[in-house]
Write a structure and sequence with these properties.
Blueprint (H helix, E strand, L loop, with lengths): L2 H24 L2 H18 L7 H27 L17 H8 L4 H8 L3 H12 L4 H8 L3 H19 L2 H20 L2 H7 E9 L1 H5 L5 E3 L1 H8 L7 E5 L2 E8 L2 E11 L2 E8 L2 H5 L3 E3 L11
Parallel strand pairs: 1-6
Antiparallel strand pairs: 1-2, 3-4, 3-7, 4-5, 5-6
Helix pairs in contact: 1-2, 1-3, 1-4, 2-3, 3-6, 3-7, 6-7, 6-8, 7-8, 9-10, 10-12
């Protein structure tokens, strides 16, 4: 087997994942397939010499292809004043690869795709890669051609728009209860209660400044995340972070930390801990009653 055949074989092992990424970005199965094929053409020309993480590299390549397609689509829309209708992920026939079914149908609902259509291309790419595929802002920044802080801002703006379109008052009330339970368990040092509040596959990520303050860059799994946050929430309070229920840590007239949270099935599925002052400055932060998080309480 020559090098090109070996590369093709390795590419095929990642095809289902790449199609899932492309579908979430483009909202069209046909366009997603085209993007994956274009990614293969680019990869086959460049080769994979010196690539340590093939999956990450291929995700970067297909993301750049999708970004180009989204920008071209926007340009065509401006010329035609038309609109692009997203397509639901189609059901596969029985002879299709079952891995494709899992990856593609792992469900971006049509309603979310409609919301994503309203985002700018770079916002959409940043949101999809970070919120749906757990890439870090450092990884996404070169794809969209921004700094990590600016990339965080892109994803934050996108998240606000998605939350505004999809979150109900009932959702926010449930999320508040979850956050309050998390903080109470942390302050009490109740490890079992913390584990119960966290999704089994929860991921907690902390930026560079947060790591300097004693955090960890990444912690995975409910038991590990619970162990890390046990007893650490003494100054933390619930708050709104970019329109969703999150956690704010005020200190001496400034915000020391902000926790941007994601929820799944009534549990906390991801925690992004933001400590970089430049990053905190671009977040929309409010106390749980909607006011200034630094304003004195009555």
């Amino acid at each position: 087997m020559d090098e090109r055949d070996l590369l093709a074989q390795r590419f095929e092992a990642h095809r289902a994942h790449l199609r899932a990424v492309a579908y979430r970005m483009l909202g069209s199965e046909a366009e997603a397939n085209d993007a994956v094929q274009e990614a293969w053409l680019r990869v086959s020309r460049a080769g994979d010499e010196g690539v340590d993480n093939l999956g990450g590299w291929l995700t970067t390549v297909v993301s750049r292809v999708c970004l180009d397609q989204l920008r071209a689509r926007n340009a065509r829309h401006e010329e035609s004043l038309g609109t692009h209708e997203p397509e639901p992920a189609p059901r596969r026939q029985h002879e299709a690869n079952p891995d494709d079914d899992v990856q593609l149908a792992d469900a971006v609902g049509l309603a979310l795709l409609v919301v994503l259509e309203a985002l700018e291309p770079a916002e959409r790419v940043a949101f999809v890669l970070h919120d749906m595929f757990d890439l870090t802002f450092d990884e996404i920044a070169p794809i969209v051609g921004r700094s990590p802080v600016a990339t965080r801002q892109l994803a934050s703006r996108a998240r606000r728009r998605v939350r505004g379109a999809s979150a109900s008052a009932a959702d926010r009330a449930r999320h508040r209860q979850i956050v309050e339970a998390f903080l109470a368990a942390s302050k009490a040092g109740d490890l079992d209660a913390l584990v119960a509040i966290l999704d089994p596959d929860v991921v907690a990520r902390t930026d560079a400044q947060g790591v300097r303050l004693g955090g960890q860059a990444e912690v995975r799994g409910a038991a590990n995340v619970a162990a890390f946050f046990k007893g650490r929430a003494r100054a933390a309070v619930p708050g709104f972070v970019d329109g969703g229920v999150g956690i704010i840590v005020p200190l001496k007239g400034r915000i020391l930390l902000a926790f941007d949270l994601r929820f799944r099935d009534g549990k906390i599925a991801a925690l992004d801990v933001v400590a970089e002052p430049e990053a905190i400055a671009v977040l929309e932060l409010k106390s749980i009653d909607g006011g200034d998080p630094l304003a004195p309480t009555a």
